[in-house]
Design goal:
The chain contains 54 helices and 28 strands. It is an alpha+beta fold and 1460 residues long. The longest helix is centred in the last third of the chain and has 30 residues, at 1363-1392.
């Protein structure tokens, strides 16, 4: 755009200025669209804005659809940074670009490097070899190629990419040397150019990613001790058969590679001089010129010669002995040579080269040349590079008839060479028996050409005049020929067939069949290989096809088959003709045009045209006859003729006059049977007619087509969705095409009126797709737009009674649907069109509603819809001109006045006419009146306020209650909070304050009722604002849940169950997102608890359909069960299943009961076997005046995640309160300065789930003691509201030497308001108790707990002797036994088992006895545990086992002595 702007500023050419301005405006419009602003359409020619005043509305709509689809496609593409790989479409053909960098070599010879693609599945090289000759430095010998040695391997498919490798061959050039002295000086090799193999490298193509930048790759080179293995090295290396190969440290090749998918990129590279490396097997390409013969030197047999190293030279020679110059090369990058010299394999008398040479020859040279081979034998002792051949041979690549020899292997006999360059007369025409040898050479040839053929049939066909006796043979062979060969020679074959058709009329049918076959080869290709040849076929018809008689023969041949269509053989050829019908008629039309140009007489031209019309009419009449047949055998033909008709019919515009052409179409169209299977093709055919322009200047023809279209639309629109979409597409095309005719001829537009009810029904169908509804909306608007007001009134008035009411209702609902869920907001021009047409429609509706005012009670829904539509109209976003400085001008460009005022006037007039019956519309008018108050226009705000106030006053006066207004207002505010939460404050300021003022002087009863309602609304608004201001993020879950619960409490109290249920499920979804599955299940049960098990029918809500209480509650229970199961809270899911089983038993659904019981059994199994980890719990106390009053000075317990660390929980809390400071000593008393300080502090500490019996010091209930350990552990952390944490302290000032003697603990028990888990993951502490425990009690509890732990570990090892269980037991035993040996028992004895302790603490005599008892118990427990450990511990722990057994014996003795 900057460049365009600069050009605009400097140019003086007015034409260029206009063009640049237009381009700039179009670019700006596109930028606006991509940024999400209003879509401004501009004329591609003038650059002026387009709207319904200067452009047909349907055309506007179709442009919007097209641009929106384009923008959606563009927005789906990811923006890729420069350093990131580009994500592109992985389908289609890929192009591999290779850039040679250097070859690393430690020898002093020149190096050849070649690159090709190797298919690992077929074990073949599939491309030419890109060749680079390097100097001794490893860089390209041609300095211009340094940094520019690049090639492209074209058309790699995604399937091939997985099997292709880049094959790198490295060859040195110089003197033949022995294996033991491969390094030679430069002077030694001077003059010798023998090519010796070094090794190969391989790189998987699949490692390349599409769209990445050129990436450097280092390819290692594999070498072998035997040159004979060079040709098969790739196969050996890929199969990991490496005994004869080694990855060389002396050689490596450095390249850069990339893969692209865009053909344009390849074209750009080709223009920059990058060479193309072609496939060996030629892929047909239109207009390509390629004539290459690939000769592969496979192997040789020189075993009759003495041991040596053999070289083959090959050249192309003419019969006169001259060689074709510079025609042989290895591949692109290699300078063409007259003679190619093969690799020399050291000391191999049966060498295997597999070396391919490309001969690029002129087509006319093929029949004149032969390949000439010479064999040279070299040794390491050679001192001269000049040497005569030891044998020669030749090979003729063409057949006597002029075709090229078939691809494949050929064995060549070699002859003794008397001298170099034998005379061709001596070996081509004479018997060389006496010169024959037993030496053999095997070659393989492959032809890649679209100039020469190897097939006799195709050759005879293209040269039929020279071979007249071969015509029948060639025509018979063509259908069985290789499609590649036929397509390669498409133009010559078709040219020959048409020339033959004019000359050989007896073979007309035969030739017709072949023409159809050739065309269908291209049309029916499913691989996509021949798709480009469609263009070639069209080019042939338009440029090369000169026949003037062919049309007669083609039509007669086709008619011959059609007239006898009952023959199955004829049906085959009819099918071929129908599939190629478009091209058949293009050939007919072109041939007829050529014939007319040859005729000078106008009368003769008219006669020729009439004859053609008659013949074509016969063809189409045969089509009609075919379509009317009920024979099922004709169904395939019927389907194809319908599919082929649209394109073919478009060719007849310049053949038939308009009336005759429409008559031809009508006969054909009316013959199509009314079958569902043919509906789609039938609509396509109608659309093809509509999109032509031959009828537009004739109003009579337009009327005929409109009638036909309306009848078809009314027939197909009520059917399936696919027919709906297609039918609407037909109508859109029709209205767009005949728009001007309808505008110029208003009476014609009345033909379309019957479509209005059907289109309105489609437009407001909630089950239809948005695209279908928009199509229908646009068509309805277009019809209302082109119909005059009088015509529209007449159409509505033509309906009586109920039918008129139904029509008005359909129009009102369609208009309302459009205003609420119409076009995308950025479709500015379409909205302007909708507003203009909608305004016209509202005037018409108002007139007819006034006429029906006496039937108001029956038309209540109709009136409500009308008022809703009016209010939706004036609330339309694009009409709020106060919101933007740009929008007023954009709107006034179309309107001369504010259209909202006009609609408001109609609304007020109609509202006043309703009078006392307004109260019947209260519930439907509250929401729209609130929407009006949110608009920026002061006039509309006041109108909304007055409407709301009048509704409120009327309801209170009539019922002395505000309920009718209050409940819809609550619903409107909930909707407002979800859609426009930023407007809540404005709404509160405007509505509630103004209502206070309006009703301040009312009667006491009204003032009291209104003030109560306003108080509740203020409370609701505060709750909604609180909810909406909570940030997103998992760390705010608790605040969001609290706000949700407050809203739910409000809705439940006000009996607004719909929003209550909505927030219940939002709460459940939030818990699910945070992976709090149990809490999510508990939330769902809040909904379930509202419902009983009756059979009363409930209304649909959220995703729940209309169903009974039983069905709804059953679904909710299953949802909760799923959450509980996912949260491993199987106890709760079992309880819910118990209730389900009871209900299903009552209903006698025993199959369901059996299924639930099976699920319940699975849950019991999981309870007993699965490991469950409880959530962590944390105490949080908030201090400081800057915390809100709901938190300040209070203490809460938070339920964390499973195994959550306290550091992670603190981080979560600090993300919510970033200014709060964590008091590090959580067990210390908090100072008054912090409690009353002007800041934020909190104390965070871990707490442990406890119980009431534990807090009261009571023993564990018996029902818990019998539970398995894992079940008990879960029960102790579920359904709890008591938590504890412990603080150690000392009562003595001085610290005792024995730590057990001073170990006093204060156990703080916290009781929360709610139990955990619950719908909220935090609860306030409502009670606090402190229990002090003496040192001896702590000792008893510590030893008892350790005994229980060890017993549980032994049980687990018995059930599962895995390494983790054994390791836990090992650590527990070692910790106890080692600690006891190091003084544990002794310290207990010194602290508690002395007489002094009992004298000071006489009340602890029982505790002393209890301590001795638990110590004795520990001996039994440890002895049992050591026995278990001995059986399960691995060999590496046996030494530790023995050590623990020794220590245990000492410990046991000490305990027995102490505890006597």
């Amino acid at each position: 755009m900057v460049s365009l702007r600069r050009r605009l500023l400097v140019t003086n050419d007015e034409v260029e200025k206009t063009s640049l301005r237009r381009e700039l405006l179009n670019r700006l419009s596109e930028g606006r669209r991509l940024l999400g602003y209003d879509m401004i359409l501009r004329s591609p020619r003038s650059g002026l804005k387009q709207n319904h005043l200067n452009t047909p509305p349907i055309a506007l709509y179709l442009m919007h659809k097209e641009l929106s689809a384009k923008d959606r496609q563009n927005s789906g593409r990811e923006v890729v940074s420069e350093c990131q790989p580009q994500k592109t479409d992985e389908g289609g053909l890929k192009q591999i670009v290779l850039e040679f960098q250097t070859v690393i070599s430690k020898i002093g010879d020149a190096i050849e490097v070649s690159f090709a693609l190797y298919d690992t599945s077929t074990k073949e090289i599939v491309t030419e070899e890109y060749y680079v000759k390097c100097s001794t430095s490893g860089m390209p010998e041609d300095e211009s190629l340094i940094g520019n040695a690049k090639t492209i391997f074209k058309d790699v498919t995604m399937e091939e990419r997985a099997t292709l490798c880049l094959l790198v061959k490295v060859v040195r050039i110089g003197k033949l040397v022995s294996e033991s002295s491969k390094k030679s000086s430069k002077s030694d090799n001077a003059g010798f150019c023998l090519r010796r193999p070094i090794g190969i490298g391989l790189l998987q193509v699949s490692t390349l990613k599409t769209g990445q930048r050129m990436k450097e790759q280092r390819i290692p080179i594999w070498t072998s001790s035997s040159d004979q293995l060079f040709s098969s090295a790739a196969e050996h290396i890929l199969q990991k058969s490496l005994k004869d190969f080694v990855e060389s440290s002396d050689f490596a090749v450095i390249v850069k590679m990339a893969m692209f998918s865009q053909a344009g990129e390849v074209a750009d590279m080709t223009l920059k001089g990058i060479r193309i490396t072609n496939r060996i097997a030629m892929t047909p390409v239109p207009q390509s010129r390629r004539n290459d013969l690939y000769v592969t030197l496979v192997d040789g047999d020189f075993s009759k010669e003495k041991s040596g190293s053999f070289e083959i030279s090959v050249s192309a020679r003419r019969k006169d002995g001259t060689s074709v110059l510079e025609c042989a090369s290895i591949g692109p990058g290699c300078t063409p040579q007259t003679t190619h010299k093969s690799l020399v394999l050291y000391h191999q008398n049966t060498p295997r080269w597999n070396e391919r040479v490309r001969f690029s020859l002129a087509p006319q040279d093929f029949s004149r040349i032969h390949l000439y081979f010479e064999v040279y034998q070299w040794s390491a002792k050679e001192k001269s590079n000049q040497k005569p051949p030891i044998a020669f041979g030749f090979f003729v690549p063409s057949k006597p008839n002029g075709t090229v020899i078939d691809d494949g292997k050929h064995e060549i006999g070699l002859f003794k060479a008397k001298n170099a360059n034998a005379d061709p007369e001596d070996y081509l025409e004479k018997d060389l028996g006496e010169q024959g040898t037993k030496l053999r050479l095997t070659i393989e040839t492959t032809l890649s050409s679209n100039r020469l053929t190897q097939k006799d049939g195709i050759f005879y066909l293209m040269n039929w005049k020279e071979n007249p006796d071969k015509i029948s043979e060639a025509l018979a062979a063509l259908p069985n020929a290789d499609p590649n060969d036929v397509v390669k020679f498409l133009s010559p074959i078709l040219g020959s067939l048409f020339c033959m058709l004019e000359d050989q009329q007896k073979l007309a049918m035969f030739i017709f069949n072949n023409v159809m076959h050739v065309i269908l080869l291209i049309l029916e290709d499913k691989t996509g290989r021949y798709s480009p040849f469609k263009t070639e076929l069209e080019r042939f018809i338009e440029e090369e096809f000169t026949s003037s008689e062919v049309h007669e023969h083609l039509l007669r041949s086709f008619l011959y088959y059609l007239e006898k269509m009952e023959s199955k053989n004829h049906q085959r050829y009819i099918m071929m003709g129908l599939k190629a019908l478009y091209y058949l008629f293009r050939l007919v039309r072109t041939s007829h045009r050529n014939k007319i140009m040859q005729i000078e007489s106008k009368e003769a031209q008219e006669q020729e045209a009439s004859a053609l019309e008659a013949e074509i009419s016969k063809v189409f009449d045969s089509f009609s006859e075919l379509l009317t047949s009920a024979d099922k055998a004709y169904l395939p033909l019927q389907t194809v003729v319908l599919k082929s008709f649209p394109r073919t019919f478009a060719l007849l515009n310049d053949v038939f006059p308009p009336k005759d052409l429409l008559s031809l179409f009508t006969r054909f169209y009316t013959s199509i049977p009314d079958k569902n299977a043919l509906a789609g093709p039938k609509l396509t055919i109608l659309k093809s007619l509509i999109e032509q322009d031959f009828y537009l200047k004739d109003v009579g023809l337009v009327k005929q087509i409109l009638v036909m279209t309306v009848q078809t639309a009314n027939q197909h629109l009520p059917r399936s969705k696919s027919e709906e979409a297609q039918c609407l597409s037909v109508l859109l095309s029709m209205c767009n095409q005949v728009h001007q005719c309808l505008v110029d001829n208003p009476k014609v537009s009345c033909i379309l009126c019957p479509l209005i009810p059907t289109l309105c029904d489609v437009a407001r169908n909630p089950k239809g797709s948005r695209s279908i509804r928009l199509d229908a909306f646009t068509l309805v608007l277009h019809l209302f737009h082109i119909l005059s007001t009088d015509a529209l009134n007449d159409f509505i008035s033509s309906h009586d009674g109920t039918s008129r009411k139904k029509l008005l209702m359909e129009i009102v609902q369609a208009l309302l649907q459009l205003m609420r869920k119409g076009y995308d907001r950025s479709w500015f021009a379409m909205w302007m069109f909708a507003y203009v047409t909608g305004s016209k429609l509202i005037h018409v509706l108002a007139r007819h509603l006034r006429e029906r005012l006496s039937e108001f009670d029956k038309d209540l829904k109709l009136w409500g819809g009308f008022f809703d539509a009016c209010l939706a109209f004036v609330s339309a976003p694009h009409l709020q001109v106060e919101e933007s400085t740009r929008k007023p001008k954009m709107v006034t460009d179309i309107y001369a006045k504010d259209i909202r005022v006009e609609i408001c006037t109609i609304f007020v007039e109609m509202w006043e006419e309703v009078g006392l019956k307004q109260n019947k519309l209260v519930s439907s008018m509250i929401g729209p009146s609130i929407d009006l108050m949110l608009l920026p226009s002061i006039h509309l705000k006041k109108m909304g306020l007055q409407l709301y106030a009048s509704l409120l006053r009327r309801v209170v006066n009539d019922t002395m209650s505000v309920e009718q207004v209050y409940l819809p207002t609550v619903d409107a505010l909930i909707k407002l909070s979800k859609e426009h939460n930023d407007s809540l404050s404005d709404f509160q300021t405007f509505l509630l304050t103004r209502l206070d003022e309006l009703f301040s002087g009312s009667t006491p009863e009204m003032e009291r009722a209104v003030s109560g309602m306003l108080k509740d609304l203020r409370h609701l608004l505060s709750l909604l604002k609180e909810f909406d201001t909570i940030p997103e993020g998992i760390e705010w879950d608790d605040e969001r849940t609290l706000a949700t619960l407050r809203l739910m409490e409000f809705f439940k109290k006000s009996n607004r169950l719909t929003p209550y249920i909505t927030y219940v499920h939002e709460l459940a979804s939030g818990h699910e997102s945070a992976n709090r599955m149990t809490e999510a299940g508990l939330a769902v049960l809040l909904h379930a608890n509202l419902i009983d098990w009756s059979s009363n029918v409930l209304k649909p809500i959220l995703s729940f359909p209309k169903e009974t209480n039983f069905e709804r509650k059953q679904k909710l229970y299953h949802m909760a069960i799923k959450y509980f199961d996912n949260g491993k809270n199987w106890e709760r899911s079992i309880a819910l299943r118990d209730e389900l089983i009871e209900q299903e038993r009552k209903a006698h659904r025993y199959t369901v009961v059996a299924q639930i019981l099976r699920e319940q059994a699975d849950s019991f199994q999981l309870i007993s076997e699965a490991d469950r980890y409880s959530a962590e719990y944390f105490r949080v106390a908030f201090y400081g005046k800057k915390f809100p009053p709901t938190l300040r000075g209070k203490e809460f317990v938070y339920r964390g995640f499973e195994c959550e660390r306290i550091t992670a929980f603190i981080a979560r809390m600090q993300s919510i309160y970033p200014n709060a400071e964590v008091i590090k000593k959580s067990n210390a008393e908090v100072s008054p300065e912090i409690v009353e300080g002007d800041g934020q502090w909190f104390v965070i500490a871990t707490v442990t789930p406890s119980s009431m019996w534990e807090m009261k010091g009571e023993p564990m209930p018996m029902e818990l003691q019998s539970l398995p350990s894992n079940v008990l552990q879960f029960r102790r952390t579920s359904d709890i509201n008591v938590f504890t944490y412990m603080r150690p302290f000392r009562k003595k000032a001085e610290k005792s030497a024995n730590e057990f003697e001073d170990l006093w603990t204060a156990h703080h028990f916290l009781v929360t308001a709610e139990t955990f888990p619950g719908v909220l993951s935090r609860s306030e502490v409502v009670e606090r108790h402190v229990v002090e425990r003496s040192p001896i009690v702590n000792a008893i509890q510590s030893i008892s707990a350790k005994n229980k732990d060890i017993v549980n570990l032994c049980k687990r090892c018995g059930e599962d002797s895995g390494s983790s269980q054994v390791s836990s037991l090992t650590m527990a035993l070692n910790g106890v036994i080692d600690a006891e040996v190091n003084g544990g028992v002794k310290m207990y004895s010194q602290a508690f088992f002395v007489d002094e302790y009992l004298r000071e603490n006489p009340d602890d005599a029982g505790n002393v006895a209890r301590l001795k008892e638990v110590l004795r118990d520990s001996v039994d427990v440890l002895e049992m545990a050591l026995r278990v450990h001995r059986t399960v511990c691995p060999a590496n722990l046996q030494a530790l086992q023995q050590k623990m057994e020794v220590f245990f014996e000492k410990m046991k003795t000490e305990i027995r002595q102490t505890c006597l």
